[in-house]
Design goal:
By secondary structure, this protein is α/β, with parallel strands linked by helices. The chain is built from twelve helices and 14 strands. The chain has one domain: Metal-dependent hydrolases (TIM Barrel). The chain binds zinc ion.
């Protein structure tokens, strides 16, 4: 059953395409999601009341800084809303995006295909498994081979009986400390990459050392770092030296939480979150250190409050706002094109 019809192509939910047709591409979003596994119980009585309220203008401020404690905020599965959100991105020049929704957070291949057709935006869908708390009940009992087979089938044949294929393996969820089941999940993802030539997308757990541990495992298992994206680098790595070392491995560095403005991490309030100006500073560090060709950009929208429909910044935030700030900070249009067009094209092309 091994076919390599995707070799040299990017694989979208509507089939393989010439990577030159990808154009502007943001490499980590969620058009539909059920992120209940990320719920954080509120810290006080006011929070307990807000947690049960639907998102509205009069609680948008509270939800924006307690985004993981609003149950309504963590779930959105309306296809028509998603079409409107993607239309904003298209209007701002966007042509393609990666939907990184994997097993455990309600990936929906048919809905993604419908959204892609309606919006005329290429959508690349993810294979594999999200973080431990969202793993299926039998995951601990499954072998690496069985998980690998599922990933390969999702890429080469399609998810279930839909015939709709995954064009990237990930996001493969990892916590800190990194659990054995999550290591198995990444090991299977790497084996899936070796078998299919697909790109990989992996977010590290909440520690500056997590990305390097993941790189070591990918290397050991024979994965292709030049076809792998390390997600969440903007919120995981704050030291220039560690950032430079990671880029030197050849892995793609994803700054993927543009627009997420919260001072601390809701799941670990002792941990600092960068602002967009700090994200841009880190992008400049990498460019100055010679790693422009390893940077990709995204918002990782995974809550309602960041969508235009609910008063948020939307999928057009990078092309409509961030690129302008980058230019004022001395990043050229050619460099922006490298990050938004050329680098995604290279990493999303199947071996
Ligand atoms: Zn994500």
């Amino acid at each position: 059953m091994t076919t390599h019809d995707a070799t040299g192509k990017a694989l979208t939910v509507l089939g393989p395409i010439d990577p030159n047709d990808l154009g502007m591409t943001i490499t980590h979003e969620h058009l539909l999601i059920e992120l209940g596994a990320a719920y954080v119980p509120p810290v006080n009585e006011e929070g307990e009341r807000q947690a049960e309220e639907p998102l509205a203008l009069d609680n948008l401020g509270w939800v924006s800084v307690n985004w993981a404690s609003s149950k309504d905020n963590l779930v959105y599965q309306d296809v028509e809303t998603a079409k409107r959100e993607v239309a904003h991105y298209k209007n701002a020049g966007g042509q393609s995006l990666v939907d990184a929704t994997t097993v455990g957070i309600e990936r929906d291949p048919e809905a993604l295909a419908e959204i892609s057709r309606a919006s005329d935006v290429n959508i690349i869908m993810g294979a594999g498994f999200y973080v431990g708390p969202s793993h299926p009940k039998d995951f601990s009992d499954r072998s690496v081979d069985s998980v690998t087979e599922e990933i390969i089938r999702d890429v080469q044949v399609g998810v279930g009986d839909t015939g709709i294929r995954c064009g990237i393996i990930g996001e493969i969820g990892c916590s800190w400390p990194w659990t054995d089941d999550e290591k198995k999940s990444v090991t299977a993802a790497v084996a899936g990459q070796r078998a299919t030539g697909a790109p990989l997308l992996i977010p590290p757990g909440r520690d500056q050392k997590a990305p390097a541990e993941i790189v070591n495992l990918i290397d050991r298992e024979g994965g292709d770092l030049s076809r792998t994206i390390m997600s969440h680098v903007d919120i995981r790595i704050h030291e220039r030296e560690i950032l430079r070392e990671l880029a030197t491995t050849g892995i793609y560095i994803e700054f993927d939480t543009f627009g997420l403005n919260t001072p601390f991490q809701p799941h670990a309030l002792e941990l600092f979150m960068p602002s967009d100006s700090q994200r841009i500073t880190k992008v400049k560090w990498l460019i100055e250190d010679g790693h422009l060709e390893r940077i990709v950009l995204a918002h990782d929208i995974c809550t309602k409050h960041r969508q235009r429909t609910y008063g948020g910044h939307g999928l057009d935030y990078i092309p409509a706002n961030v690129t302008n700030w980058m230019k004022i900070q001395g990043i050229t249009q050619a460099q922006i094109n490298t990050m938004l067009i050329e680098n995604p094209r290279r990493v999303l092309t199947f071996a």
